[in-house]
Fold:
Amino acid sequence: MLEAELLNGLRRVLGDDRVVVDDAGVADRRHDYWVLSHLRAWRGVFEGRPGAVVRPVSTAEVQEVVRLAAAAGVAVVPFGLGSGVCGGVLPDAGTLLVDLSSMDNVRRIDEVNLTASFDAGVNGLVAEEAVAERGLTIGHWPQSIAVSSVGGWVSTRAAGQFSTAYGSIEDMVYALEVVLPDGSLVELGQAPRASAGPDLRHLFLGAEGTMGIVTGVTLALRRRPEARAWRAFHVPSLAAGLDVQRRILQDGWLPPVVRQYDAREARRTFREWSIKGQGLLLMCHEGPAGRVEAELAAVDALAAEGGLTPADAAAAEHWFGHRNQVPSWEELFEGGLVVDTIEVSGPWTRVEEIYDAVIADVSAVEGVVAVSAHSSHAYRTGVNLYFTFAAAGEPDDLQDAYWACWDAAMAATARHGGGIAHHHGIGRVRLQHLVHDLGVAGIDLLRTVKGAVDPAGLMNPGNLLPDA
Structure:
């Protein structure tokens, strides 16, 4: 547990009611939404808990909290809304968890410059609804939008479901406000674009709380699109659908949503609209009405040239209406299953190899009953793959099967030239695989940067950086 001197100092800054130390009070801050944490808790073997949870309501209070923790040599774990799925939050009894959910103010919406500033703890859907009242949109729609925070988007380098046109969170961040590990404050981002040395905002985009605590975020906005239309196509082979996606993007068209499901997922998720043995390609087109009309015509022509056949667009609208409805981990455990998703990416020339290798290698893991994939984020240079696996077994065996599936997927992706993390981050589940993307020299560089920013190693230790 934490020393009384530190706890008393925190109470002087925040008040007794915002410093929580009892078991019941910290129970829902023991971990994030990582399936393995939930599996351990469900089995009754999860024992971790933070030494205390503090709930600041301002950046100044976060600074004071961090200064006190630094002076005491106590590790700090930032916590947004707990929607991370990679084990980025796993405090122990010697850790102070800084719960940012009470920092929930919409600071400013600028309708001329199209920016909006938020406290880091603002719920993502609340942020989107606030700008929507002005006829605007952030354009960032992760599946977790209703349970994630704006600061969490930044810290995990998130990508939303409309990213093919609107970009991922790094394309939307205008400015950041961050409390550094010594309690000092840095504000980064003054203009639409700058050539003022390296872009220091990227020290914190994807840093998962290891470089500081993001307390404020300014995002660039868009005006709400004038028109929206949906398309769906039957895909005779993975290669045919990927080639059509590539041609669409490389020809300069930007449908915000481009999702290609393999035959397994098409059958399971879109049974009413699927054809046995074929995949399904779904697209959303939105923007000025004239551009949407032109894009639809171009995409229809490219799909026909690529051997795709039209499917009922109701399949795409069904996805949109049900896209965030998923069973809880506990429901799956009760059925004797551990299920997870693994998102990777690769260049167009390697993505089929990655798909085939991951499907084969994960399928070979003992206990695996299903593995499938879809793509959900496309670029001129390549595409992501979003795998889902399910393994069955006795409760005591599920954790081993889980790790075996992840190890197989990471190794197969790396072996075929792919990137091992597309948008969920690293956390602890990918920690020892980060070398595949960064190399040994890159890991050393990241460790050097971490040591310079956080020399005492107090910010979210055990997360992101592999063992030395």
Summary: DSSP finds 16 helices and 18 strands in the chain.
